[in-house]
Amino acid sequence: MRVKICGLMDPAAVAAAADAGAAYLGFVMFPPSPRSLGAEAVRALALAAPPGVVKVALAVDPDDALVELLAGLPIDMVQLHGQEPPDRVAAIRARTGLPAMKAIGVREAADLEAVARYAPVADQLLIDAKPPKGATRPGGNALAVDWRLLAGRRWPRPWMLAGGLTPENVSEAVAVTGAAQLDVSSGVESAPGVKDPDRIRAFLAAAGRAGAPANLRGPAPGRDAGDDSGHDSGQGPRHGHGRRG
Ligand SMILES: O=C(O)c1ccccc1N[C@@H]1O[C@H](COP(=O)(O)O)[C@@H](O)[C@H]1O
């Protein structure tokens, strides 16, 4: 099981996520979000992250100026969480030299038709809930996808389940969807933008148990389950700052 902790805003949260076994660390670059960071803050946090963890910058319909900034950051992947059409995803991927993870908002089965459109241009797909009406951001809304829509699907690219995941529901989410990669933001916070180290550890532990083969799973929660931390196709960090050669 590989987990991305997104919306990290300070070194303590980065350390908590990395120490608990996160495979990916996410930094939001979208000013309307309470989790948004500027390029220099992303640079500092990415450089503070331990080696071996994939550093992801999240942007929403980035303009060319932001794409230039992304290209100069010490990150390993870009997450595109807006309405970027496939040719724009391809252009951003080419300009930055970084793997691209394209978010696809899903409310109903027909929304999954986008998977076929983005698979040729994206290195990974991220399945998130569509935002509620009037939302100020397209993600990070603590809203879950109808997991049953994802059950039993074959995926043309590595994919990540996002949207409304928490330490409490992650086990069911994995059981229903079969996800091997998970992305969480709101569910490990005490307030928007404020990561809670205990919830980060609880999420990683629960995700690790959910992803383990049944005969290796620990005791069921509520019996004697501690909170021990469980612990790449564009998944692993590249040498240096993660550029494609
Ligand atoms: O986190 C944000 O503020 C955000 C802003 C704009 C686009 C995406 C954002 N977050 C991503 O949304 C999903 C789900 O988050 P949550 O766990 O439901 O809060 C996840 O991929 C975040 O990376």
Automatic annotation (TrEMBL):
Protein family (similarity comment): Belongs to the TrpF family.
Look up the domain of life of the source.
Answer: Bacteria
Reactions the enzyme catalyzes: N-(5-phospho-beta-D-ribosyl)anthranilate = 1-(2-carboxyphenylamino)-1-deoxy-D-ribulose 5-phosphate
Pfam families the record matches? PRAI
What EC number(s) does the entry state?
5.3.1.24
Question: For the region Disordered, what residue ranges are annotated?
Answer: 211-245
Identify this protein by name: N-(5'-phosphoribosyl)anthranilate isomerase
N-(5'phosphoribosyl) anthranilate isomerase (PRAI) domain boundaries = 3-204
Q: Which NCBIfam families match?
A: PRK01222.1-1
Q: Where are the transmembrane segments?
A: none
Composition-biased stretches (Low complexity):
211-223
Q: Which GO terms describe its molecular function?
A: isomerase activity
**UniProt entry keywords in alphabetical sequence:** Amino-acid biosynthesis, Aromatic amino acid biosynthesis, Isomerase, Tryptophan biosynthesis
Its annotated pathway?
Answer: Amino-acid biosynthesis; L-tryptophan biosynthesis; L-tryptophan from chorismate: step 3/5
**Enzyme's top EC category:** isomerase
Keyword Chloroplast included in the entry's annotation: no
Record bears the keyword Zinc = no
